[in-house]
Backbone:
């Protein structure tokens, strides 16, 4: 596998999130998550919206910001999440997707990135949000090194500057790297999440 084609680890990460989402019953939707402002319902609704947006971008129709907006969470959200995951995996499947241009309106009007880079963004999101969701509902979370290692490479390039102070930033400032724990735990610290959540919450 080349660095540019991250679809297989992305698929593995997405399918892991689907298994966790299947366990989200309506009584769990109001639980807090490591994403400070979001409940489990908010997190799943966001994850579903991102799947829909990336799927539209892969098909050449991602420039409509409305396609990226989450729907209000509710008892339907777990099933809706599974449908959105199927949608994005199907949209990423054609062989030329890494070479296509993806519209990314959340980054600004008219912003596009190469497909392989967009899939890298998607992989980071679903490895990290997969952990967020699993922790919030009390499930174990393990991913194969093939999923985690490319995320380590990508996350190491994300600036830890004043842009992380913005309420719109998906990541808080990095936490100190203790040099211990798994590669996933080190990734989480780099993105401002404590692997010990909720004990550290």
Residues:
């Amino acid at each position: 596998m080349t660095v540019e084609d991250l679809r297989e680890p992305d698929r593995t990460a997405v399918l892991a999130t689907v298994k966790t989402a299947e366990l989200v019953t309506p009584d769990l939707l109001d639980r807090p998550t490591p994403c400070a402002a979001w409940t489990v319902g908010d997190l799943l609704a966001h994850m579903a919206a991102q799947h829909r947006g990336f799927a539209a971008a892969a098909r050449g129709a991602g420039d409509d910001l409305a396609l990226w907006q989450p729907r209000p969470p509710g008892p339907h959200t777990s099933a809706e999440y599974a449908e959105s995951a199927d949608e994005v995996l199907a949209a990423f499947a054609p062989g030329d997707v890494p070479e296509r241009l993806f519209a990314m309106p959340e980054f600004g009007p008219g912003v596009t990135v190469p497909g392989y880079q967009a899939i890298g963004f998607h992989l980071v999101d679903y490895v990290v949000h997969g952990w967020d969701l699993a922790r919030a509902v009390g499930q174990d979370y393990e991913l194969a090194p093939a999923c985690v290692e490319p995320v380590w490479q990508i996350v190491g390039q994300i600036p830890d500057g004043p842009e992380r102070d913005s309420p719109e930033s998906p990541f808080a400032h990095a936490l100190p790297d203790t040099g211990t724990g798994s590669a996933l735990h080190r990734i989480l610290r780099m993105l401002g999440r404590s692997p010990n959540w909720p004990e550290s919450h």
